[in-house]
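PROTOCOL LOG
Step 1. Enter all chains and additional molecules of the complex.
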Amino acid sequence: MENNRILDIENLVVRFETDDGIVRAVNGLSLQLEKGHSIGLVGETGAGKTTTALSILRLVPDPPGVVECEKLSLDGRDIISMPIKELEQIRGKDVSMIFQDPMTALNPVFTVGEQIAESIFLHEDVSRAEATRRAIDMLELVGIPGERANEYPHQFSGGMKQRVVIAIALACHPKLLIADEPTTALDVTIQAQMLDLIRSLREKYSTSLIMITHDLGIVAEICDEVAVMYAGSIIEKGTLEDVFNRTKHPYTEGLFNSIPNLNDRKAMLTPIQGFTPDPTDLPSGCAFWPRCPYACEVCKKEQKDIRISDTHYVRCSRYEEKDFRINRKEIS
Amino acid sequence: MARKKKKAEVSGQKQYKKRSIAAEVWRNYKKNPSAMIALVLVVIIVFVAIFAQFFYDFKKDIVKQHIKEKFQKPSAEHWFGTDNYGRDVFTRVIYGTKYSLSVGVVAVAISCIVGVTLGLIAGYYGGFIEDLILRFCEVFTGIPSILMGVALMTAFGQSIGVLMLAIGLVYAPMYCRTTRAAVLPVRDQEYIEAARVAGVGDLGIMFNHVLPNALSPIIVQVTMGVASAILCASGLSFLGLGVPIPMPEWGAMLSEGREFMRDYMYLTIFPGLAIMITVLSFNLMGDGLRDALDPKLKQ
Amino acid sequence: MKKVLSVLLALMMLASLSVSAFAADEVTAEGYKKEIVIAMADEFTEPDPMETTAETNQIIQDCTCDLLTDTNLDTMNNEGELLESWEMIDPTHWTFKLKEGVKFHDGTILDTDDVEFTLMERAPQHSTTSSYAAKIKTFNKIDDLNFELELVQGDVDFNYTLAANSLAILSKEAFETMDEAEAVKIGTGPWMYDEIVPGDHVTLVRFDDCTLYDVPHTEKLTFKMIPEASARMIALENGEVDIIMSPSATDYTRLQEDENLELVTEVGRTQNFIGFNLKNADSIVSNVDFRRAVAMGVDKEELIYAAWDGNAVESTNWHCRDSGYYSEIEGIPYDPDAAAELFEQLGCDGLQIKLVTSDADHRTKMATNLQSQLSDYGIDVSIEIMQNSALTELNTSDGTTSGVELTISSWTPGKNADYMYRNPIYSTGGRNYCHVDDKHIDELIDAGAGETDPEKRQEIYTELQKLLVEEMVAMVPVAQPTLTLGTRAGVTGARLHPGLVHQFKTAELYLGQ
Amino acid sequence: MARYIIRRLLLMIPVLICVSFVVFFLMDLAPGDIVSQMAPADATPEQIEMLREEMGLNGSVLQRYGRYLWNLLHGDMGTSLSLKRPVMEVFIERLPATLKLAFASIVIALLISIPLGIAAATHHRTWLDGSSVVLSMISVSMPAFWLGLLLIFAFSYKIKLFPSGGSGSFKYLILPALTLGTEQAGNLTRITRSSMLDVIRQDYLRTARAKGVSEKQVIRKHALKNALIPIITVLGSTLGNAFGGAVAIETVFAWPGIGRLTVAAINSRDMTLATGCIIMFTLMLNLTLLIVDIAYAYVDPRVKARYSK
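Step 2. Run joint prediction.
Step 3. Record the structure below.
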């Protein structure tokens, strides 16, 4: 079982020690991912999704970032204590990342070909010419004519840039791909193309995937599992079925309620009340209680992980009460 | 990235109190220790510049020579020693603050008035006038400031007024450009259009609406400008084109002391230090102001 | 590792530099230093003697070419250099005989044609020499070595005119065979131009066929431009140069005490003075009592101390000491009490007066000290410093309108007495700084120049001197500063010239075998 | 690109003409003229007038400027009044010394400022950063000629390692280049630091790191190339200024550069030389700025695209 895990995070804590106080970005997050599986990391802006992803590559800026955890292993190798040289070999080779904003993710002063080839040249024992040739292949694979390899990022549109970013990420066929809101900055029509592209490439190279997004639709489209994050920890995790159909956490419920329902356009949108909490000053107990319609005194003091099934767990103390149910109906 | 977003939210959420811009700037400024030290120094320098003339008598302490007491090393009696005429160097350095500082301030005022006006006009009207003004600036910036200063000083003769004017003119194009650059983005804002619709005249719009919104880069430039004007003045004085003798301008003192440098190094050290500390203070203050005025740039 | 290497490399470079900084002297077979390097303050700009009056140019030109007559620095008399002898038949008729067998650098022999070419062809075309040429009516060649001059006006001191550096004799043949730019370099002196690097140095090589002087053992003479006195001093101490011109007064003791160095001194012939603009009727300086009060009230000793660190000879007289017909007049002695009284009578307390001078170092020093001295009498002197050309122009422009009140300036005359007056004192003189405009004085000047009897001449000049300084108080003569050279011990043939054109024709440094 | 360069070159012409006009008239305003300086001390008024005509200084200032400009447009900068040689010749003679000092100082400045600026940015908010900020601030606040004097005092007077002035072998170059280099290094360090700080927070560096580029390479290759534009801008104007603006340093070290030549020409009222030098100087500065702009294109493809439009 262990060996089958591509990623195993145990109790990850990330905080940023700034002049204005300690920002607690990730608080005791644990996450496991099987090889070849894909998981969606869902949450509002500022929930700590990106920070979690960066922690996996140990790219959290330090200072001011401080990363602590009991376990962080990638394909069975410990990341936390790994020397930087080895880490550099893993980055881009075993695990790579697609960043949110394609407009800024590419270096403006190098051609896209060079940027893709660099990754190949670094990780595989090939000549520069060979790396360049493979970069062109990679470009074509993501649907860009190979002759555009000599062009610079500013000559590409946003969608094309994202294709380039994907090409960079997949150039060395990584075992794990982290896609950090890969479509947020793009037009809706392009979004679908991107998702298709990621899905097809993933299938082709049987890459594991962490899809970071705040769009539940994308998760449904592409992921096997879902983890919902709030204020730096996972508050509900399960298979797509578990989370979508048998929603347990009030916050997850809130997320679903915020999505306009195409089938019932007359239905009222019910957004979650209030704002995400100040990460320098998190509420005690369950971080969600100030906004939670089901909150009771217990929630202000503690939070508990409740296992619903083998695949599904939720972090909400109220499930200690046997007959606690949220309003959202289970869909079976 | 994540961190920045959070901070933005934080300030959006709870720190939204109405505060005057000055108070906000001051709050930011106070956080910068080197800028605070600089501010204190600037205050002291300004104080010395204003009040030195009340402590010392120009005729008795500056003009009068005591040849018999020349070249005395720094001591309790003469803190910075005496020069080749037996004059007390400390007195001269202190008294000289007035000249260096007034040259710096007035020169900057001149460049400011000329440059900001031209820059406003260029930025506000655009088109042919803008082109003309920018070309004109190019002519002046194409000549190194010190050579231009030498030419101006030679043409109009040596006096403290000409020195101020020369330096002022030399640096004016810089202010013109800064102002124009600051005005450009403001020019097309809706509130300018609104003011125009409301019947405010061009001049009114320029000075009441455009200028205040373009002010912060100008303020920074002014502070730093005093520093560079003082440096430029000392350079010109060093070349023998500064204030008339026996005014104890620091650059002139440096150039006088240079002849005796080998045996009496202190004659060059102290005026040089005075220049450096003054310029450094203004530069640090300008740096601090820049950070305080534009927190986005704060590093 | 790379860093360590680069640091090591840098250190090695530094070390090699410091070694090469003091190269050993190269010595000739006879034990003389092969190359003598002379550090001077100003730039050499012009090899043509007729194109310049700058002393730096003239010093180098003096090494490469010769004059018909020149000051003998041992006797301080005007003697023939290229001339064997001359005779004044009457003040308008002079005959001259050239030395025989003098060779130019191009190998041709000096003859009267070269002299005629220089005096009659080139001189009228150049502004520096046209006034000399205008004195000559006819040039009669007698033979290759003898010629005769007929002058427009009688001039008993005409031999001094021929000592003007711009009248150095150049080779006529050279001008016929080469470019003017090259021909002006062909002289008869013991040195020939080798290399001119503008703004940096000029190298001369020995002219072995020189007959006028004992050919020095030195093979090369290099004039190096080092504007800073302190830098020149350092270069001398380091052995980079052998002779430095005008060392700083603060270095005199250093030169005297260092056994490897020497200080060469000579009283200069430059009269430094505080001049009054006599024509400025709006100003108190037109009042002779005020001028007298200034003359009494100024402590010249202190001025000398401030300007030259004491290294100057106090002047009581406008007339320079070693100029002909100098007379020991008393002048106006320092008397501060009398001055204060006189100033008070004139109501000078709080008086504002403007002084103009040039940016020459000693002049500004004199000006600041004078300002300090006069402030004791309650007089506020404001000093305006200008470039020398501007000062000259202002001082020589119309005195009634120039607005000048006081000026600090100087005058370096030639050896003959007329030089002291013709330009700076005569009413129509080109450099009449004090704007002296007095018929009687003009008459005396003319009389002095035309008088052949030395005794009568002496009388005339004594009267002139007293009149100018004691009665008219046109100026306060301050001092004739000491001229100095710093040399390495053992340097010979480096001669200071009171007229500032120092001689290095036979410069040598014996270092032993 | 070629069209862009030609356009820029053509635009320089009116600027240069304006410069010549300004300098010529300033020089004319100056009291005193070269004639009274060149004339012998015992010159008569007639002699002076003769000299004035000889030098072509007769006529009104407009006539003289007209003549000057006419010749200038024909590529003739005239003859130096004090040196009696073509201005161009004099200028070219001094050029090597100027270029030597300018480039040596720039090399020193770059050797100091680029590593220091980068280190400061990558070690942001550490003692290293702090001291680099303070040092560079001090270096821009110090009169450079004063630093020159201190260096002379230390290295020529106390330990007699380097000559205190003049030009010649390599050892003459060290102190002036060090002085000028230090002055320039201050500004360059500041700009390097701030533009690196700007770049260091860019997303594409994270992209580079995420694909396994080593930190050293991220900084040297990915970050530095992006940070170069502001550095090149400052470098250009610094270099341009070193051509003639380092007068005080040239004076301190008796360096035979163009700056001192120009000041000497102004002082001696040598109109043609002063005007010619300043024109040449402006031309050099403008050419440097043009080269800088062209250099942008090689550093940043976005700029190149803009030029070709």
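Step 4. Note key features.
Chain C touches chain B through 28 residues (CB under 8 Å).
The longest strand of chain C covers residues 475-488.
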